[in-house]
Structure formats: structure tokens, C-alpha cells
Description:
The structure holds two protein chains of two kinds.
Chain A: E1 14-18, H1 45-58, E2 62-66, H2 76-86, E3 89-94, H3 101-110, E4 114-118, H4 124-131, H5 136-148, E5 153-159, H6 167-177, E6 181-186, H7 191-195, H8 197-200, H9 204-220, E7 226-230, E8 250-253, E9 259-260, H10 281-287, H11 289-292, H12 310-313, H13 318-325, H14 342-356, H15 368-374
Helix pairs in contact in A: 1-2, 2-3
Chain B: E1 8-11, E2 16-20, E3 25-30, E4 33-37, H1 39-46, E5 49-53, H2 54-64, H3 71-83, E6 87-89
Antiparallel strand pairs in B: 1-5, 1-6, 2-3, 3-4
Amino acid sequence: MAGSNKTSISPPRWLLAELTYSCPLQCPYCANPVDYAKYQSELDTEDWKRVLTQARKMGAVQLGFSGGEPLTRKDLTELVKYARDLGYYSNLITSGYGLTEEKIIQLKEAGLDHIQVSIQASTQELNDHIAGTASFQHKKEVAHLVKKHGYPMVLCVVIHRENIHQMPEILAMAEELGADYLELANTQYYGWAHANRDLLLPTKEQFEQAEQIAQAFKEKVAGKMKIYYVVPDFYEDRPKACMNGWGTTFLTIAPDGVALPCHSARELPGLDCPNVRDYSIEQIWNESKAFNFFRGYEWMKEPCSSCDEKEKDFGGCRCQAYLLSGDMYAADPVCSKSPNHHVIQEAIDSSKASALAANEKPLIFRNSKNSRLLS
Amino acid sequence: MSINPDQTLKFSPMHRLQWEEVQQKNVILYPEGMVELNQSSAEILKMCDGTRKLAQIVNDLEQKFATTGLVNDITAFLEVALKNGWIQQN
């Protein structure tokens, strides 16, 4: 374990407030942990206010209200107002499900800066299938209302094998809805997406074709719409600079108050992630075992420790190293220098075989029943 | 993208310009992003209040900092700002 040199610790900039794990949707690539159903005890309003105050004091300025579906929290507007008074820039990351015009106005008055609406596909049939809930028409309506009330509108579409062929239609939909930003998020294979990977991972040819179409569109709409393209790291030679480095920038608070250096870190063994019910954000960020675990470079193994790119990508993602190699200290297997790199090709092959199989197993949808089965 | 000298400049309502005490810096905030500004960039953006045109901004900043010859630097920065959507003209 490294990183005890406290003078080198930079303050948090981004706070992701996962207000709840409850969600009316059942997306099979949900980033929540597969065993989320066992974490029942949500923080209350006063807990969240304390967290917001302490993190802001340390320098956090970007704030994401997320979940689950944050709209299911009755105190959302109160928390938005509290965050605005502290000077946060607040992002609401929502499925749009259950969002009314009245609520959109109320949140605007409370000081919400931006709303990100997720849409699962460009057609009602596929959207409603992937979401596990009839929601397509309402989501489009919400996107219009978000624009109408003067918010910057970010449309988020998670890309995977079931919808990647719709790339041209997805882009046309974003244009029609007047999105200011379009986030094309290639699925990252953690949590539920890891469990469903054989059914979600597209082929390299599909990725390349979709990327080409998105790139041409990006040039076409330059100056009108910004595109955030989340890279499909399984088809890269080098890993992503996950979280901009462990414990340097991002702080996630899970619904039950557990503080995480990234929203998947719950899956890692032995971190003893601290809870905001027991410690202040300052103690958690500066002193906790979990936040110091992968700070700096001393924890690294070869090939990372002597790699001349380690300051660029920090060895990649710890959760991905653990999920794919069983060793959270190992190089992210996405890296072509990793001795475990073959597992990536195996995953790609397995996914391709699954797509060609006559009786492909069904997607495991994200709901409490499946969560209990998988825990 | 170039600046139209006949139109006023206005900071974008889709972004927020704010002083950050911890960082001792002005920052631009927007959906899921942040840009840290140096002092001169922040001073230029604060002039984009919807009432001033390019020449007035140059004039006002030259007066404020008792200097001359800022026109090229200010124009270059405003072009970047316009391209990034931080400011608008109309």
C-alpha cells in the first residue's frame, strides 16, 4: 500500500452522490453493484447535507446526483437547493422516468444546473426492452421539456451489441431532440454489464463502423452539439486513465453512505471502504485505508512499475484488473503489455460465439430479484 | 470562428463562471466539465456581459491594467472562447 505522503494528496473535485439504488428501470448494464439489494439503509437528508458541506469545503465543485434513479428521493429538490447555496455545479443524472414539467421547473428554481437524460435506443421497441420498462415516449417528452426550461441537455446513450447498429438513428434522434451534448457511452464491463458481457460486447467491426459514423457526425455538428465518446477499452492497446488516478479527483458516496474512490470499488476485496456515518469527508479522503490504497505508484507490479506510461494511465482500472485477472494489483488486462492480456481476446471470442449460438441465453435484467440471486 | 467587432459579447447562459476559493482560481463549469482559468482569461470573460463589443473590451482592460497593445491577445482568447461555446455574439 502506497501514498502515505499526505502533502501530495490533491483535493476532490467531483462528488458523485448516489442517492439511492432504487430504480424503475432494469438496464442490464447498470453500473450499480450486482448485489445492491442487500444495501438497504439509505442516508437521510441531514447526512447528505453534511457530506455536501464537507466535500465542498475541501474543494469539490462538480456534483452528480445519481443512483439508481435520484428522482425517487423525496428530498431531491431540497438537496439541489442546498448544493446550489454551497456553490456546486449540479448535474442530475436521470432516466427521466417520472420527471414532470412541474418538477423540472421546481428543480430549476432550486438551482439545478443541468439534466442528463438517458435513452436506451432510437426505437421504442428496443428502448423499452433494454430499460425493462415502457419509457421511450416519456423520455423524449422529458428531453423536450429540459430544453424548453433552459437547461443544457445531455443525452446519454449506452452503446452495446443490441443497439450499436442504430448509431445513425441515435445521432439523428439527438439532433432532433436538440441535445447540447451527446454522451455515447460504450458499455464498461463492471457490475451488471460484466454479468451480461457475452450478450452486450459488440465485435471489433461493429465498434469501428459505429465510431466512424459518430466521428463524421461530430464534425457535422461542431459548434452546435458536443460529443462525449466513452472509449470501448476492450478494443484499445492501452488502458483508460481510470478516475484520473485513484483518490486524486473523484469521490463517490453510495446510497448507504459508503465512500468509494470509484463507483465500482465496492467489488474490490479488503479495502474496508469507510462510511460517512462514521468519518468526515476530510478523514475519508486524506486518511482512510481505501482512499490511500492505490494512490501514487508504489503499489504497482511489473509491467506497470517500470513502465514509462504509468503516469499517463496509472496502470488502468483496478476493478477491471480484479474482475478479469483476480488480482487487483495487476496491470489492467486491456493493456497489451499485461501478461493477462489474452483474457480480453477470450472475452471477445466468447461474446462472438454467444452471438452466433442458436439458443443464446437471455439478458439478466437489473432488479432486486436478480440481485438477490446473484449475491 | 472569428469575433464580429460589431456585435456585443455575452458569457454563455449554458456555462457558469465562478471563483473557487480552494483553488484560488476562476473556473468555467458546464455539464460534467470544468476549465481552470488564469487571471487574464478570467478578466476578459468577465467583460463579456452583453453590453460591450470587442473594441470596448480591449479599451476597458487596457485602462484597467494601465497598458496598451492587448488587442491581439484578447482577440485570440475570445476566438477560443467562442469556439468552445463559453461566450456568444448576437
